Amino acid sequence: MQESGAFQLAMGQGPQPGQVFELPQGTISIGRDPGNQVMIDDVQVSRQHARLIPQGGLMVLEDLGSTNGTSVNGLRITSPHTLAHGDEIGLGDNVTLIFYGRPVGGAGETVMAPRVAYDSPPSAAPAYPPPAFEAPPAPAHQPPPADYAAAPDHAAQPEEYEDDYEEAAGCNWALIGGCLLVAIITVLLLAVIVYFLAPASVVDPIGEFLEGLGVNVP
User: Fold this and answer.
1) How far is the C-alpha of 126 from the C-alpha of 66, rounded, in Å?
2) Could you tell me which of 178, 5, 211, 30 has the C-alpha nearest to residue 105?
3) Distance separating alpha carbons of residues 68 and 115, to the nearest angstrom
4) How far apart are CA 187 and CA 6, in angstroms?
5) Residue 77 Cα to chain centre, angstroms
6) Per-residue model confidence as pLDDT tens digits over 68-79
7) Alpha helices in 31-154 (DSSP H)
8) Of 43, 47, 106, 147, which has the highest C-beta tally within 10 A?
9) Sheet strands (E) in 42-185
10) Please, which residues have CB within 8 angstroms of residue 56's CB and are 6 or more apart in sequence?
11) Residue 85 pLDDT exceeds 90
């Protein structure tokens, strides 16, 4: 049989934080009514809120249909729950009790029971250095294809290209002169044809105009 004082509750939050309740043998009732073995005067606690039942050296917690509910380690219970050393019992939103499976002091002693952290925060993700930037390798020099025609290097031989330019310019003037000469000959031929073939009403004014210029027309 479990010895008296083997189980205790320490108030972590409530009307008297740090108060320790020595749990006697047998079933223990918890509530706001003064007749409970563990009496807690808080508006969130029902008159008959919960009870603790020893079973085979363990302690089982059961909610008695309380208004604000009973939780263990933040999870509301709806059926009997076997307690483990260090479990946090919640009565409504205002009261928490830490369950101890072995004595922590004399009966009625007031101690500050530490809050138990049940959910450890997720570990920070390891920091990895950013990948070093690597410039892409420069492409290997490729020789030009066989049919590649290199541009003429004007800067390498300027005198040679100046001579070519002057020669090309001379050819252009000769072409222009030839075109003018052909045009003059064509106009003269047309004038002769018109003179001999045109009617007198057209030829006579032309002849008078030429005679006025000192040109004798037969």
Assistant:
1) 46
2) 5
3) 21
4) 140
5) 42
6) 999 999 999 999
7) none
8) 47
9) 50-55, 58-63, 70-72, 75-76, 81-82, 88-91, 95-100
10) none
11) yes
Write down the pLDDT at residue 4: 46
Encoded tokens for 95: 């009261």
Q: Is the dihedral of CA 153, 159, 160, 165 positive or negative?
A: positive
Q: How far is CA 3 from the centre of its chain?
A: 61
How confident is residue 25, by pLDDT bands cut at 50, 70 and 90?
Answer: confident
Q: Residue 192: count other Cβ atoms within 10 Å of its Cβ.
A: 10
Whether the CB-CB separation of 85 and 104 falls below 8 Å is answered with no
Q: Place 190 in a pLDDT band, splitting at 50, 70 and 90.
A: confident
Query: What are the b/e assignments for 6-44, b being 16+ CB within 10 Å?
Result: bbbbbbbbbeeeebbbbbeeeebbbbbeeebbbebebeb
Residue 105 backbone class (left: φ over 0; alpha: ψ -120 to 50; beta: rest): left
Q: What is the reported pTM?
A: 0.47
